[in-house]
Amino acid sequence: MAMQTTVVERRRFNMNEYYALAEAGILAPDERVELLDGHIFQKYTGVRRRFTVAEYYAMAQAGILTSDERVELLAGELINMAAIGSRHAFCVRWLIKALVIALGNLAILDAQNPVRLGVRNEPQPDLTVLRWQDEGYPELPGPEDTLLVIEVADTTVGFDRHHKIPMYAMYGIPEVWLFDVNARQVEVYDEPLAGGYERVRVVGPAGILAPAALPHVTISVSEVMPE
């Protein structure tokens, strides 16, 4: 099967939302910005206006971002998350089943919830394996809490590989699994450095996966990968 690709899109603002950003104090009165084709740029420089995590939440509180919008904050930009296709959903569903059984009380499995990385990044991985906490993370987990990030991709493999995974490395996430459901393989990244992961290996459908932090927890790729 030929791999499908898609262009990952930044979330656009309309004129009413642009003015609402100012009314909510997200855009300061003295900011020299302009709205061009739904995107906010600094005047005269052509540089996109980036947002912090605090501003991201302020947009939701002001009703600019609605509760049913699927966006994530990456490098200060709001990125529209791709629709979840049937193959993607299959893989996530069976990964949840396998990992819940395998992890037991060794760690906490989080599904499609945010991880806070610095002041301008709040990605929503498909799955995150977190250090065990009896209180269950009343606040969002950060890099120090994260043992493993799992991304599942059908149409966004390139974006995940070249944008999200280097970001995880920059913040010291120790390991990432990228499930490419079209190629029916998993890219395993570990040993993070500032510019990316030092080690990458590919595991095919006959392979077995085990997180470096939990080597006795094993997952069979064939059990979770759609045909």
Give helix and strand order, one letter per element, not per position.
Answer: HEEHEEHEEEHEEEEEH
Distance between the termini: 11 Å
Structural class: alpha+beta
Number of helices: 5
Mean pLDDT: 94
Runs with pLDDT <50, length 5+?
1-5
Kindly estimate the percentage of residues that lie in beta strands according to DSSP.
Answer: 25-35%
What's the story with the biggest beta sheet? Answer: 6 strands, mixed
Structure description:
The chain is α+β, with helices and mostly antiparallel strands and 227 residues long. It is built from five helices and twelve strands. The protein has helices at 15-23, 53-61, 86-103, 157-170, 221-224; strands at 33-36, 39-42, 71-74, 77-80, 107-111, 127-131, 146-153, 175-180, 185-193, 196-203, 208-209, 219-220. Strands 5-6-7-8-9-10 form a six-stranded mixed sheet. A two-stranded antiparallel ribbon has the order 1-2. Strands 3-4 form a two-stranded antiparallel ribbon. It is elongated. The termini are close together.
